[in-house]
Amino acid sequence: PRRVLSGIQASGALHLGNYLGALKRFTQLQDQGAPCFLFVADLHAITVWQDPALLTAQTREIAAAYLASGLDPAKSVIFPQSAVRAHAELAWVFNCVARLGWLDRMTQFKEKSGKHKERSSVGLYTYPVLQAADILLYKATEVPTGEDQKQHLELTRDIAAKFNNDFGVPDFFPLPEPLTQGPAPRVMSLRDGSAKMSKSDPSDQSRINLTDDADAIAGKIRKSKTDMGVMPEVGEALDDRPEVRNLISIYAALSDQSKDAVTAEFAGQGFGAFKPRLADLAVSAMAPITAEMRRLMADTAEIDRVLKDGAERAAAIADPVVDEVKTIVGFWRA
Ligand code: ATP
Ligand code: MG
């Protein structure tokens, strides 16, 4: 049977990349009738410092974004990762299955740890192992994410295959399919066409937050980095114009058009004509979601109900799987 699983970290304000690369995809899959398990990744969030006073609010905010973007708790299971103990338990077993050499190749750790590898948390290093546990606990068949998670999803498949093989339980964990081909699988920073848009980017100008108002969005797009040229002609290679390519991709994803159609519409025009149109589009796509998030955050009772119910439904699937794993590994069982 089909089972979709994905998560978003409770590590700060959501942005346009999260919306186009993740949230918009989740609702599409739900609306196709696929059972979806969507969690708020608070265990992942603390791999970098999170103020405890803010973490709870950030967790509710991600839940609000799920609901506001069209996920229906009657159809989809929405829950906080830390509320289902099985995630941490399975992650430990997987820490003993995954090899150091596999983790040494992970580019996200290299990017996030930067020049200060020795000062990073151990959790940041083993993050992809926890991610494998998140996915395999539910025996997920499909995992929609942005393109940045592709390498971690391959690692998940390697961990599943090694567990199945080491313990002689072929097919115990099915190998999940990564779905990284969304409308905009890699939205780039507005300030740097070689870096992805991220919650953790210190520059707020680099991203459009779901909570930005129309003026802020218009300002960030107006000031976004471009180049001295004009909008490209149809068929023009954009390899050396990454910022321009990014803005076109965003426009295409927001308007459900192909990049070629967008290029044809604006070919040869100045950015002064294109940018306000892009800003209008971003505002009209995001404003209803933002408004609904604000409504949900005003009284958190509804969100808390959804998260509690989701945690129970998720644990009902995950707990028996981790119990089976304990038996397979040979842990003493009463
Ligand atoms: P952080 O900087 O804390 O890692 P993030 O912006 O990368 O935050 P995550 O919570 O790590 O957000 O990712 C949530 C989902 O959003 C994942 O599926 C991820 O692949 C997707 N995503 C994140 N950034 C982008 C982006 N720039 N373009 C498309 N998808 C993205
Ligand atoms: Mg990330």
How would you sum up this structure, described in words?
There is one protein chain. The protein is mostly helical. It folds into two domains: 4-179 and 300-329, Rossmann fold; 204-295, Tyrosyl-Transfer RNA Synthetase (Orthogonal Bundle), CATH 1.10.240. Helix content is 53%, strand content 7%. The chain has helices at 16-31, 42-45, 52-68, 86-95, 100-104, 107-113, 122-136, 150-166, 214-222, 242-254, 259-266, 271-298, 301-329, and strands spanning 4-9, 36-41, 77-80, 142-144, 177-179. The strands form two sheets. The chain has a three-stranded parallel sheet with strand order 1-2-3. The structure holds adenosine-5'-triphosphate and magnesium ion. The site of adenosine-5'-triphosphate has 20 residues, from strand 1 and helix 1.
Keywords:
binds adenosine-5'-triphosphate; 5 strands; aa-tRNA-synth_Ic; single chain; mainly alpha; binds magnesium ion; 7% strand; 2 domains; Rossmann fold; 334 residues
Secondary structure elements and pairings:
Blueprint (H helix, E strand, L loop, with lengths): L3 E6 L6 H16 L4 E6 H4 L6 H17 L8 E4 L5 H10 L4 H5 L2 H7 L8 H15 L5 E3 L5 H17 L10 E3 L34 H9 L19 H13 L4 H8 L4 H28 L2 H29 L5
Parallel strand pairs: 1-2, 2-3, 4-5
Protein name: Tryptophan--tRNA ligase
GO cellular component, one term: cytosol
InterPro entries: aa-tRNA-synth_Ic, Rossmann-like_a/b/a_fold, Trp-tRNA-ligase, Trp-tRNA-ligase_bac-type, Trp-tRNA_synthetase
